[in-house]
Amino acid sequence: MTVFPSAELKVDLKKIEQIKHTIDNTLRLITFSRQHLADDLLDAYLTKTTSLKDLLSIKNAQMEAETEEEVELYADRLRDAMSFIAAEILSDSQFQSEVQLFQLFRLISPEAHQRHPNKYRQTDVQIGRYVCPEPFRIPALVSDLFYQMEFIENPIIRAIYFHHELIRIHPFADGNGRTVRMAKNWILMYKLCPPIFISGADEKRKYVEALESSFLFLNRGDRVWNPHLELFFDQELERLFRNVNVVYKSVVAAGQSRIS
Fold first, then answer.
1. Tens of pLDDT, residues 141-164
2. What is the CB-side half-sphere exposure of residue 16 using CA atoms within 13 A?
3. Rounded mean pLDDT of 209-218?
4. Mean pLDDT over all residues of the chain?
5. C-beta neighbour count of 136 within 10 angstroms
6. Domain 6-254 in CATH: superfamily?
7. 3-state secondary structure string, the chain?
């Protein structure tokens, strides 16, 4: 495996412009309306997927918990990671290093980190029909991924690209999905975009199918923009588009409640 070259990305920018337009409208409300506060935006980001109902949906979709107690534990770790990211962003720290990747890994998947502290996996892994790269290749692949990210100016494209490629590398023995989603959200939130999470089993199934198809295509050696990679980007952009509209409506509702 080699990291997909960032220069080959050919993302349709129309959806990104729509997303940016809604984000700009939200920021205008907070900046110029006396009925809206900056806290409204942060509250909308932090509470977007932390209700028990949402977490049960995430749990069912990701199969990362079996009982309600495990869901609550997952919720606590999710909140801790989101709060950590918010504090890092407040100190003007954007996601751009392997050290930060391990920080998120430790927060969101402490059991896996405890088994392999600050180390990448040492065993072979297969995702469906896709065989992940051998353990000895992982450090160089992760390093190259961070290098490739430097050439992607748009934060939305950078975040989705990182998500796709880190899952393809699959650097950890466990907790890869949870860790990469938090890293992706750090990239997005630093640029005032809301976080993206998968919601529901059907959405999870389509997500997994898109990733597997893309990985298998790229594994043949064709490092070019292709329909499978495009589908994954479209899915992620649709989730983000949905979330920016939810955040906008949440901020509007918070302002209206103050008026009333």
1. 999 999 999 999 999 999 999 999
2. 14
3. 96
4. 88
5. 9
6. Fido-like domain (1.10.3290.10)
7. CCCCCHHHCCCCHHHHHHHHHHHHHHHHHHHHCCCCCHHHHHHHHHHCCCCHHHHHHHHHHHCCCCCHHHHHHHHHHHHHHHHHHHHHHHCCCCCCCHHHHHHHHHHHCHHHHHHCCCCCCCCCCEECCEECCCHHHHHHHHHHHHHHHCCCCCHHHHHHHHHHHHHHHCCCCCCHHHHHHHHHHHHHHHCCCCCCCCCCHHHHHHHHHHHHHHHHHHHCCCCCCCHHHHHHHHHHHHHHHHHHHHHHHHHHHHHHHHHC
The answer to whether residue 56 scores a pLDDT higher than 70 is no
**Distance linking the first and last C-alpha atoms of the chain:** 58
Whole-number pLDDT of residue 48: 56
pLDDT for 67 equals 67
Contact call for residues 223 and 5 (beta carbons, < 8 A): yes
Alpha-carbon distance 229 to 242, whole Å? 20
- Asked if the model's pLDDT at residue 51 lies above 80, the reply is no
CB burial string 17-42: b at 16+ within 10 A, e below: eebbebbeebbebbeeeeebbeebbe
Q: What is the pTM of this model?
A: 0.90
Report the amino acid identity of residue 226.
Answer: N
**Per-residue pLDDT, 63:** 46
